[in-house]
Amino acid sequence: MAGFRIQKEKLPGGVVLVGVKGFLDAHTFEQLEREFNTLFDAGSFRLIVDLSGLDYISSAGAGVFIEAIGTAQENEGNIVLIRPGPNVKEVFDLLGLSQIFTFKDTQDEAVKSLARTQV
Amino acid sequence: MSGSVKDRLTISNDTRHLLALRDFTSRAARQGPLSAEDVHKIVLAIDEAVTNIIEHGYNKGESGSIDVEAEWEGDRFQVVIRDSARVFNPESIPAPDMAEHVKAGRKKGLGLFLMRQIMDEVRYRYKDGVQNELTLVKYSRSKV
Q1: Residues in chain B within 8 Å Cβ distance of A100
Q2: What angle separates helix B110-118 from helix A86-94, to the nearest 10 degrees?
Q3: pTM of the full predicted structure?
Q4: ipTM of the complex
Q5: How confident is the model at residue B96 (pLDDT cuts 50, 70, 90)?
Q6: Nearest Cβ partner for A27 among B18, B111, B117
Q7: Burial class for A117, CB neighbours closer than 10 Å (0-12, 13-18, 19+)
Q8: Are the C-beta atoms of B45 and B90 separated by less than 8 Å?
Q9: What is the 3-state secondary structure (H, E, C) of B20-79?
């Protein structure tokens, strides 16, 4: 059954890689919201989110990222997004979020970008 | 294109039906001369419209249905969404300042913004016996 799945991997330097797959909409967004909150509660504020497996995102899903980036940045972290498909990137563009979020092509570039923002 | 092709879907007010709604919209939109990119955007706009009805129209625990009708007329793709939820006129909601919206970390109101960005027309009317009727139109501009 089509749905939404999340995978997590701890990377060196306290960075967490979050892989999301499937459909992120009003039915599934709370799963990602809970996952981000769990990470924030554990003190992880530097996140890379791999969007390559994400087939679809609606504003409910984008809203989770809007809320989460605020919390991450308030805690000297950030959320870097990697490898969105064209349909997913388009939603970020339409909402004007592409200027707010950092997009990178690879995990290595994202790690470097987070290292630069580290205080 | 000539003639008209009409498709209809009725779902209950539950977000688990959004996937079926998106499949329905995609199939209907692809019957006309739209690019894959435009089809994706229309699917998104209709998802946003129905999500708003499910989340804001009906009360929690209240069961209701949402009727979606999609139709091509020449170069005009029209989707009409009817529900019996509380009266909600999206035309009465001003367009948000997205930069401010995002800065404040606000998650809500984005759906309406997307609907207006994507569709050429978004019209609401209250109709006796139906309640809310939202019409969203996209022109294929194939003649341009």
Answers
A1: 102
A2: 100
A3: 0.92
A4: 0.92
A5: confident
A6: B18
A7: middle
A8: no
A9: HHHHHHHHHHCCCCCCHHHHHHHHHHHHHHHHHHHHHHCCCCCCCEEEEEEEEECCEEEE
